[in-house]
Amino acid sequence: MNREKNERLIRECYPRLWEIYENSPPAADVEPTEAKTSAPVFKYKNAAFHGIYRPEEEAARLAARVPPEAKNIWVFGLGYGHHLRGLLDREADVTVYEPSPEIFKSAVEVADLTAILDKCRIVVGDEIAAEIGRASFKGARLYPHGPYPRFFEAEWNLLSAAVSARVLTAEKKIRVMVVGPIYGGSEPTFRHAAGALVRMGAEVVVFEASNFASGYFELDKMAVAEDDKNRLKESYCATVGEAAAAMAEHAKPDLVLALAQAPLGLEALERLGRLGVPLAFWFVEDYRTMGYWGQAAPRYDYFFTIQRGLFFDKLREAGAKRVAYLPQAAEPDVHRPVELAPEEREKYGSDLSFMGAGYRNRRVVFSRLLDYDLKIWGTEWDLNSELGRRAANKNERLKPEEYVKIFSASEINLNLHSSPMLDGLDPEGDFVNPRVFELAACGAFSLVDNRRELGELFKIGEEVVTFSSPEELREKIDYYLAHPEARRKVADAARRRALTHHTFERRMEAMLSFIISGEGGAFPRPKSNDGKERGNPRNFVRRMMEEGADDRELVELLAQFDPDEEFSPAKANAKTEEKVRSGSGKLTRAESLMLILEEYLR
Hints:
The chain is of the alpha/beta class and 602 residues long. 44% of the residues lie in helices and 14% in strands. The strands form 4 sheets. A 6-stranded parallel beta sheet has the order 9-8-10-11-12-13, sandwiched between helices. Helix 18 packs across helix 21.
């Protein structure tokens, strides 16, 4: 009976949900059963997702958690809907995200969802990405149901980061300054990150360091000693960094985000630090080959990386304050399937293709594939070699719109991560390069060398196919060339995963959410009574008294000041110097330390 009512309502009123329901597989991991009150409940992978005694009481428990003034409510987990019924009489927008199409299918077949469908917006599976993009998050509050976050950790992390970041951008018009590199591989990441922040509702100020690239490369043409040339380049980068700091002082951002190879030297970072706003760095390179991270890491409040494990340990040893893993991503407006004219398919198409620079390990491995219809695209290939003669663009740089044509035209896209030191595959490879995400978002089939972090980003064998040796690469090339339907299935699944979990908007949501957590609710910085922006909220007297509550002398010193004003050693020392002049007592340990601290800061 419930199934017939649900199906009729969904088919007539919710065509997208009907499409998901019809196309969802049988609910193999969902085991419907009955509670002691005869209410329908279920187990998912042997775990109960509703109480087996009185699941109806879940409605009152969730309703008690949601304050009456809440008007924009998000719930993670539909289940059989028992927990939602206490919200149905409220004058509020309720959005329910069910991450599992399997559970949704079972709910339609077993539970009575008619009242919930009438009162709630239900989002299922991969549809969440589009919903986040169009939803309003002003006043949004998020509530997980039962064990959902434990069983659907990636989906929970996605939604909780999105709500946290987008509530911020919806309610407080934060201004983010994004600083790009003068040149290099992180330049596209800089542009995509800035664009994602704009779409999320942030006010974005960009510092286009690449505008200074021509001057930088002119230095290479100078007839001077190499040491002098390197010094001139360092001085030039320092000047560009000072320009970025000056722009930040004028723009007054709430956050400064620098991309890898941004020209921010020590002087520029010190100047930015005096703004009193969080400084974040996204290091999108291999730490083993680009070693400047050691100097940069301790000078940023937040350091994001595409590697973790041993690198996290090294960053902490170097003095990094807060470190988080943030992989690369795709930009759906750029990385997407494209329709090709016959002449374009002829130009860009082949059985096998590779797009990238001619590193040693790639030359060695791809030289064993010359008996295939192989085209090479990119730069730094030896055009006089047999492999180099497959370089279709003759080392000329390509535009991004050409990349996606190559991806779409190739039957198999090869993706071998670069290594200047190896002759083949890196058995310890950890970071995942941008091409993995770009190919997936384009709906293109790829074979990628196995990477330690890859299995957490895509399902191996279902959403991406890997190889661990040149021999295995040949085996999989032969198999997938002979099975186009298998290629299509993997490529479609990879695109769904990329568009849901691996876009630049998802990365910027994760970044902002991490910063919000790190700032302890004091982000962005508050305004003073005259509407001007104030300094670092971590220096407010009230917060310092809370954090230093165990130090009686420090608390007594701070108690002399307005709890809502900014604190500085200079303010404390003005009172201390008055005490010294009047001879009114011995200095406390806290007063002595403040004198030393001010001298150090000077």
